[in-house]
């Protein structure tokens, strides 16, 4: 006869009592918290990868008065990060930012390391707004402190960064040699000697190794923009500045005769540098330099006397327009009037085009798109101009300088400088939200096109967050050292 062991459960289920009604709301609240965190993470990742999902999913986490439910700090941080993927007019995300920021600030005193550093960093710069290479470099030592870290992944991350760093240093060597050939240091001491900082800025936009030549081109073009800006803005007389503008508009070696002596080498080196781009790209791709130098663009500003300019020529014409403002002590009556010129003089279209010139996955359609007044480029230019003015206006207004957008806003609205600055900050946020909106909507260009525009915006935010770090580069010296000098141990 078979024998079987007795029941394993006995009378367990006879004595089982269901959870009390008091525990059920706690479970529901915990489920809501976890669900909110999951929704926040998925929303963040989808929008980060250009899936324009609706923000309506966050409505269910609000009560009837429109307030968000209380959550733990992790969930608050997830919601805070997700909400910063907002575009203009998404009120539920505006409310989420206000709610989470208030509670995260209040929670800081109770948090421990390393989580307190993570929250503080997010409050300073939301994750999506950070420069990607700096974020990657900063995260590695944080990951190293985690108890659940994977040693193989950690070692691979350090090795990968060190290899990238060596490659960056080779690029820095090339652009530094190019810069020294111009002998900016001893001969042109009035110019900001910032070639390393320029490369740092450009590297923050795209650090992918396959875009190495794009970084070289963009660094050289940005360096020339700095030279021309410093000549027209701080050193050259109005007459000399107009002579430089004339020479650039002519774009031939014969135009050197109209220039003062100190400008001649700069001008010839500008022509030589553009020619080197054409030679490097070869006959099949050299047409791209034409878009940077000679593509026709409509200009609807009365102060320009011709109907079309190349991107680079158009930039210089905007510089000379601002010179006229300066000499006549003219303050544009409206900020919109100011932006018609100053969104050109800030040079965003030129830098973006410089990036695309050196990329293999770009075609003529992209340059035609770049030559038109697209919403993404317009929002990008406004963001950069306003951000720049907020950081540099104090320094610039101490000398002889044209009025900034802040002075125009003060004049238009008859308000104080403080109120004007507060409004400019609001306009900066609006333009950032517009950048994100158009970044999500742009589907007829290669992915790298909107990505470069977005990443350029991130680097601008980083460079001008507290001061004009490009001009006052001591403020970013340690960051540059971390990225290009100190290897990861």
UniProtKB/TrEMBL annotation:
One of its GO terms (molecular function) is magnesium ion binding. InterPro entries: Isoprenoid_synthase_dom_sf (IPR008949), Terpene_cyclase-like_1_C (IPR034741), Terpene_cyclase_plant_C1 (IPR044814), Terpene_synth_N (IPR001906), Terpene_synth_N_sf (IPR036965), Terpene_synthase-like (IPR050148), Terpene_synthase_metal-bd (IPR005630), Terpenoid_cyclase/PrenylTrfase (IPR008930). Keywords: Lyase, Magnesium, Metal-binding. The keyword Magnesium applies. Residues 182-434 form the Terpene synthase metal-binding domain. It comes from the Eukaryota. CDD domains: Terpene_cyclase_plant_C1. One of its GO terms (biological process) is diterpenoid biosynthetic process. Residues 38-123 form the Terpene synthase N-terminal domain. Its cofactor is Mg(2+); Mn(2+). This is (+)-delta-cadinene synthase isozyme XC14. It comes from Aegilops tauschii. The lineage of its organism: Eukaryota, Viridiplantae, Streptophyta, Embryophyta, Tracheophyta.
């Amino acid at each position: 006869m078979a024998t079987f062991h007795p029941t394993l459960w006995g009378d367990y289920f006879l004595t089982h009592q269901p959870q009390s009604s008091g525990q059920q709301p706690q479970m529901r609240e915990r489920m809501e918290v976890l669900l909110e965190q999951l929704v926040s993470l998925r929303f963040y990742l989808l929008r980060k990868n250009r899936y324009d999902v609706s923000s309506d999913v966050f409505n269910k986490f609000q009560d009837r008065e429109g307030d968000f439910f209380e959550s733990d700090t992790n969930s608050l941080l997830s919601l805070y990060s997700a909400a910063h993927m907002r575009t203009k007019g998404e009120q539920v995300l505006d409310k989420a930012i206000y709610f989470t920021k208030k509670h995260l600030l209040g929670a800081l005193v109770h948090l421990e390391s390393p989580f307190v550093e993570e929250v503080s960093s997010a409050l300073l710069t939301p994750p999506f707004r950070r420069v990607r290479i700096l974020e990657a470099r900063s995260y590695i030592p944080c990951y190293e402190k985690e108890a659940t870290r994977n040693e193989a992944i950690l070692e691979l991350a350090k090795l990968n960064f060190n290899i990238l760093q060596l490659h960056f240093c080779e690029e820095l060597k090339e652009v530094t040699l190019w810069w020294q050939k111009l002998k900016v240091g001893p001969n042109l001491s009035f110019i900001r000697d910032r070639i390393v900082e320029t490369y740092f800025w450009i590297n923050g936009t795209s650090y992918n190794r396959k875009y190495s030549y794009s970084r070289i081109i963009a660094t050289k073009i940005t360096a020339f923009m700095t030279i021309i800006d410093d000549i027209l803005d701080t050193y050259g007389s109005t007459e000399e500045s107009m002579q430089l503008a004339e020479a650039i508009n002519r774009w031939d070696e014969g135009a050197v005769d109209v220039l003062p002596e100190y400008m001649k080498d700069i001008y010839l080196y500008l022509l030589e540098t553009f020619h080197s781009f054409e030679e490097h790209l070869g006959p099949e791709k050299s047409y791209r330099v034409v878009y940077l130098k000679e593509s026709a663009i409509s200009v609807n500003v009365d102060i320009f006397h011709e109907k079309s300019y190349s991107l680079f020529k158009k930039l210089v014409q905007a510089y000379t327009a601002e010179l006229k403002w300066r000499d006549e002590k003219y303050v544009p009556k409206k900020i919109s009037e100011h932006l018609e010129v100053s969104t050109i003089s800030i040079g965003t279209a030129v830098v973006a085009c410089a990036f695309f010139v050196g990329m293999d996955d770009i075609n003529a359609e992209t340059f035609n798109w770049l030559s038109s007044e697209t919403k993404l480029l317009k929002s990008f230019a406004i963001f950069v101009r306003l951000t720049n003015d907020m950081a540099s206006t104090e320094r610039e207004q101490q000398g002889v300088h044209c009025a900034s957008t802040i002075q125009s806003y003060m004049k238009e609205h008859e308000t104080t400088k403080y109120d004007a600055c507060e409004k400019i900050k609001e306009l900066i946020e609006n333009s950032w939200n517009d950048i994100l909106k158009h970044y999500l909507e742009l589907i007829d260009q290669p992915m790298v096109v909107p990505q470069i525009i977005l990443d350029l915006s991130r680097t601008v935010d980083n460079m001008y967050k507290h001061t004009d770090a490009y001009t006052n580069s001591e403020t970013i010296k340690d960051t540059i050292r971390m990225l290009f000098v100190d290897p990861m141990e």
